[in-house]
């Protein structure tokens, strides 16, 4: 079976979240021992978790895992980032060696860390934490031609889905998306513009901290890519192949597999947000399984989240990626489920 056909099959396994469970969760929240609405967005999050699980109260996630999807980018040759391509592989080794921010934060919230190589240009040594599913050693330059072929995009997507399904099968009950790829905010900006219709000046940011001149170049590259490919949002796999990265594709697969398995998926920053736009275009109901962990400092993040209809739980000025912002939101997800399950009802209080 072609990988594109497998994507279609996976998409068919995603069903709408349980709206009835969400409504029952809202009713229960109103009956808890507190003023109505006083827990704000935690109450909305509890209702979303109930819809995902179909249970009221929803189960408290006990075994979260972050999947850091990694790949390299041909567009880096245009000078959109001052960092060399080799940093991608170096950081993957750092993830495996337990020395990155994602590792430290994962420990603080009790999450597993898994790394998926779908397109790192440098050969990597085997490691228990690393899954090698390299589709190709990085993408082509999206400003000169398609970043990858349709079947390659589909294969990368299914690699992410496969890893998510494996983790869920091992007991993981909350997925967090993460990324690593020098230059990957450029394809993210292109994807956000393609799916939202917003211009590159609104979706393209400084990434790792580029200066004004490089930012102007980066925006110009995104404009060139959009003009070259004239992406059609009704053909999401085609848009992904033309403009995306292999890690963007893999994250879209993580999202679809999470949705198909009834597992909530916490998004990290702009890379994950752009991948969520791909997933939404493939399966609109997949958005109902998403939690926006935080608002990235990248401008494309707010544009993408607005289009997805998601409100971020945190706004800390983060722009690192790796899954760090998504992991920081894990305690809030747990708290939202625990509130619905463990708070007393107002009618049970002994007054007087």
Automatic annotation (TrEMBL):
Region (Disordered), start-end ranges: 1-21
Signal peptide start-end: none
GO molecular function: nicotinate-nucleotide-dimethylbenzimidazole phosphoribosyltransferase activity
Gene3D superfamilies noted in UniProt: 1.10.1610.10, 3.40.50.10210
Substrates-to-products reaction catalysed: 5,6-dimethylbenzimidazole + nicotinate beta-D-ribonucleotide = alpha-ribazole 5'-phosphate + nicotinate + H(+)
GO biological process: cobalamin biosynthetic process
Residues annotated as catalytic: 322 (proton acceptor)
EC numbers on record: 2.4.2.21
Residue ranges that the Swiss-Prot or TrEMBL entry lists as coiled coil: none
Alphabetized UniProt keyword annotations: Cobalamin biosynthesis, Glycosyltransferase, Transferase
Keyword Glycosyltransferase applies: yes
Pfam family, one: DBI_PRT
Pathway noted in the entry: Nucleoside biosynthesis; alpha-ribazole biosynthesis; alpha-ribazole from 5,6-dimethylbenzimidazole: step 1/2
InterPro entries with a match to the protein in the record: Nict_dMeBzImd_PRibTrfase, Nict_dMeBzImd_PRibTrfase_bact, Nict_dMeBzImd_PRibTrfase_N, Nict_dMeBzImd_PRibTrfase_sf
Protein function: Catalyzes the synthesis of alpha-ribazole-5'-phosphate from nicotinate mononucleotide (NAMN) and 5,6-dimethylbenzimidazole (DMB).
Similarity comment text for this entry: Belongs to the CobT family.
Listed name of the protein: Nicotinate-nucleotide--dimethylbenzimidazole phosphoribosyltransferase
Organism: Rubrobacter marinus
